[in-house]
Amino acid sequence: MPYPEERALEDVAFGRGLVPTRLFALLLPVWQVEVRATVTDGREYALIDRYVERGIAEAGLSSVPELARFFGLDEPVVDRALRFLAGVGHLTVQDGRFALTELGVRSLRENILYEVTREDRRKMYFEAFSSTPLSRQYYDAGVVSYLSLEEIAALPSYPRFLMLTNTQGFRRETLAELAGRKDRDRYNLPFQIDQPESLREDRVHLPIYLVSATDRRGHVRYLAYSQAAETADVDLSDLCERNREIHGVLQSESQAVLPEDHEKRIVEWLRSKELGDVRPTRTDQGGWRVSLPASVFGSRAMSLSRLGSFASLRTGVVTVWCADERTRERALLERMDRFVVPRAREGRANLGAWTERVARQLSLPFGTPEEVRDLAQRAGDDTLAVRLDELIHGNGARDTTGDL
């Protein structure tokens, strides 16, 4: 799964204030259902279409010449609009006279152009444990992967994922319940769906990361992450916390690992990187940490981006740390350059929050983008300093006339 494990762990720790203890790579069973139904979709009116309908409803105009004269438009323009509105079921025509249908009246009243499609066919996705529909973000085929058993077997990287199983079939009553949902748009549903019918049901699997974490009171939390978003999925997290089958699998996996097993695994991991003289320690929050010498970072043994982040091992997670402040400053600048600035260009308003989070993650006293810009200048990273300055001032270049 292209979604980095570290990103999920960092969101849990620094976005939510929890202590991540283990990351489970899971394959969540999902029903891929081909549904046939009569659907009503809504979209915004084109300006001329709405005024033509208002002319019919409010001024009693009913022909092309009448509407063209009233609005001062060419008759071909009006005729084209009328033909479109008749085609989507908003108008009837008899002897050259147009009248609004019930759908047209409703659309005009609610200022939404409704279109009815009969025999509409579409694929819909439902998590397999309760047949609850997945949200809209899971319909982006360019981002989210659904894997069949054959595809899973063919991919060498996926045996490390634990496949969840369940015995329930698809609950077809769910389709009838869709029409009554108030949050249809959130679940990629049309404005109205009538007479839905399942034509085919295939079980596929959605790769997710599930992070086990503890809060300040010691309560265990589960947060689910997928390719669909950078933050935890509320619905899937809730499913994993409340479903007995999933909860039982997680408990069995967790109970199979003793605290000393995790410590041994961390030592083995360090030895594999020729860092056998480093000893793991427990943090005050109950997690594990390894503090490495500054010379290690940026070498083959450890990338600089790992500093302040986590390593996910088979038995749990461990924080990677360095006591050297200069090295952490280097890590801060690298993270700003590789992760924060590209995201901030899409949403400049979040630049301050992202900067504060990365600085807090590295225990550095830089709370604002301006402070990090100045750090970049002192470190000789003029390119990053200029990019940050552009973002801070909200334009392509800083206006320096006031400095003269």
From TrEMBL:
Cross-referenced InterPro entries: WH-like_DNA-bd_sf (IPR036388), WH_DNA-bd_sf (IPR036390)
Taxonomic superkingdom: Bacteria
Annotated protein name in UniProt: Uncharacterized protein
Taxonomy of the source species: Bacteria, Bacillati, Actinomycetota, Actinomycetes, Pseudonocardiales
